[in-house]
UniProtKB/TrEMBL annotation:
Its EC number is 3.1.3.-. It is an enzyme of class 3 (hydrolase). SUPFAM superfamilies: HAD-like (SSF56784). This is Nucleotidase. Belongs to the 5'(3')-deoxyribonucleotidase family. Gene3D superfamilies: HAD superfamily/HAD-like. It comes from the Bacteria. It holds the Pfam family NT5C. Keywords: Hydrolase. Transmembrane segments: none annotated. It comes from Bacillus lumedeiriae.
């Protein structure tokens, strides 16, 4: 059986989805938690003008990414998966942040086959190019479009900002332990079918 290729988003998936919160609270004099962010678009979620929000994010982006903690359980699962699968981290981060991103992965001891920063939320082309068999995402419309275009399962990490309905090929998980369980069952069923 060929080695499966996993497409994995970074922010809000490998990193804890709360990574932005301390920066938002400090820089905008707010006192919010992740539960207060009901939309993926921060300007909409926080009622801050889009241009101001984008300028803030452009300035703070390197600091936010560098200080982002790993999502709970991500490291253990990813280290196990690296032994048996190919891991392609495909992110909307912009390409000038590649060096910082690779260094962050090194400091966290996360191994990978490739990190691709595409500078856009449209990950379909990169997922196709790398022939990924499954994708891991936190952005609702990305998860849906990747599944619908590529006909692959997409595991959507549950957050307050991605609660719109999903088709059956997008599977909600609350954490990396659930993702690992789902993948094990999926791999087992694929192996059974091929026998």
């Amino acid at each position: 059986m060929k080695q499966k290729r996993f497409g994995i988003d970074i922010d809000g998936t490998v990193t804890c989805p709360t990574s932005l919160i301390p920066f938002i609270n400090k820089d905008f004099s707010l006192n919010i938690t992740l539960d207060d962010i009901k939309k993926y678009d921060l300007s909409e979620a926080l009622d801050i003008p889009a241009e101001r929000c984008q300028d803030w994010f452009n300035e703070r982006e390197p600091d936010i990414y560098w200080s982002s903690p790993l999502a709970e359980g991500a490291k253990d699962v990813l280290l196990k998966w690296k032994e048996q699968f190919q891991l392609f981290f495909i992110s909307a981060r912009r390409s000038h942040l590649l060096d910082l991103t690779q260094k962050w992965f090194e400091t966290k001891d996360i191994l990978y086959d490739r990190i691709e920063l595409i500078g856009s939320h449209d990950k379909i082309k990169a997922a196709k190019q790398h022939k990924v068999d499954i994708f891991f995402e936190d952005k609702h419309d990305n998860a849906v479009s990747i599944h619908e275009e590529l006909r692959i399962p997409v595991l959507l990490f549950n957050t307050p900002y991605n609660q719109d309905p999903v088709p059956s090929g997008v599977i909600r998980v609350d954490n990396w332990a659930q993702a690992e369980q789902w993948v094990k069952a999926w791999i087992d069923s694929e192996s059974f079918i091929q026998q």
